[in-house]
């Protein structure tokens, strides 16, 4: 089946724009739906994780690390790096809405920046860059970052001192980094790097 004349013209126009270094324009993103009516009411059940066990802390560290016993030196050097058992890390954040921002390039095809920043809390995934007041990303992804959620690969990257100290990876002032699925030695390296070069950054890891 041969493509229609209109389809061929669209493809030719897009190819010419790419060759000229012009990014195809996109229509403004539609407004986000209202938050009213989207409340979440978690049920209490025997199989749900207690709130006090959501993150690794000094009180549950030894119990949660038991399954790494056969992996030799894979152990956090100092469990005092973790939050205290009273879970002050959770009480620090009281919010009614949040936005979660990924790191896909397709975000540049939308203009949700203002909507993202309107939320109480903004979570960015891995190395997703925030917008800055003077750069073009602001209108696409907003400028606010409350949490940065990183996986094991990016925990290793953020554990390299010069990557963090020289600004090669985005790490906002006083942000809280939540580390997921990372091996203990990578988390340990990450924590030690923060202590040396970014003591303003808080960290936690889900249990």
Automatic annotation (TrEMBL):
InterPro entries listed in its UniProt record: Glyco_trans_29 (IPR001675), GT29-like_sf (IPR038578)
Catalytic activity: a beta-D-galactoside + CMP-N-acetyl-beta-neuraminate = an N-acetyl-alpha-neuraminyl-(2->6)-beta-D-galactosyl derivative + CMP + H(+)
Cell compartments where the protein resides: Golgi apparatus, Golgi stack membrane
Keyword terms of this UniProt record: Disulfide bond, Glycoprotein, Glycosyltransferase, Golgi apparatus, Membrane, Signal-anchor, Transferase, Transmembrane, Transmembrane helix
Entry GO CC: Golgi cisterna membrane
Predominant place of localization: Golgi
A Pfam family that the UniProt record links to this protein: Glyco_transf_29
Keyword Lipoprotein: no
Catalytic activity, EC: 2.4.3.1
Membrane topology: Single-pass type II membrane protein
GO molecular function, one term: beta-galactoside alpha-2,6-sialyltransferase activity
GO BP: sialylation
Residues covered by region (Disordered): 1-35
Biased composition (Low complexity): 1-26
Protein family membership: Belongs to the glycosyltransferase 29 family.
Name the record gives this protein: beta-galactoside alpha-(2,6)-sialyltransferase
Organism phylogeny: Eukaryota, Viridiplantae, Chlorophyta, core chlorophytes, Chlorodendrophyceae
């Amino acid at each position: 089946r041969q493509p229609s004349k209109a389809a061929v013209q669209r493809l030719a126009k897009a190819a010419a724009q790419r060759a000229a270094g012009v990014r195809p324009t996109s229509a403004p993103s539609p407004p986000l739906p209202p938050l009213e009516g989207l409340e979440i009411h978690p049920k209490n059940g025997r199989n749900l994780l207690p709130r006090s066990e959501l993150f690794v802390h000094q009180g549950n560290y030894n119990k949660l690390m038991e399954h790494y016993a056969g992996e030799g030196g894979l152990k956090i050097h100092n469990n005092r790096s973790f939050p205290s058992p009273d879970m002050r890390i959770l009480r620090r954040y009281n919010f009614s809405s949040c936005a979660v921002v990924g790191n896909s390039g397709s975000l540049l095809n939308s203009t949700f920046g203002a909507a993202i920043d309107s939320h109480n809390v903004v979570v960015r995934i891995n190395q997703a860059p925030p917008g800055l007041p003077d750069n073009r990303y602001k209108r696409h992804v907003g400028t606010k970052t409350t949490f940065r959620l990183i996986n094991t690969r990016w925990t290793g990257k953020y554990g390299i001192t010069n990557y963090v100290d020289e600004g090669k990876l985005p790490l906002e002032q006083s942000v809280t980094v939540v580390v997921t699925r990372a091996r203990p030695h990578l988390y340990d390296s990450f924590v030690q790097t923060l202590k040396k070069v970014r003591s303003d950054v808080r960290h936690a890891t889900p249990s």
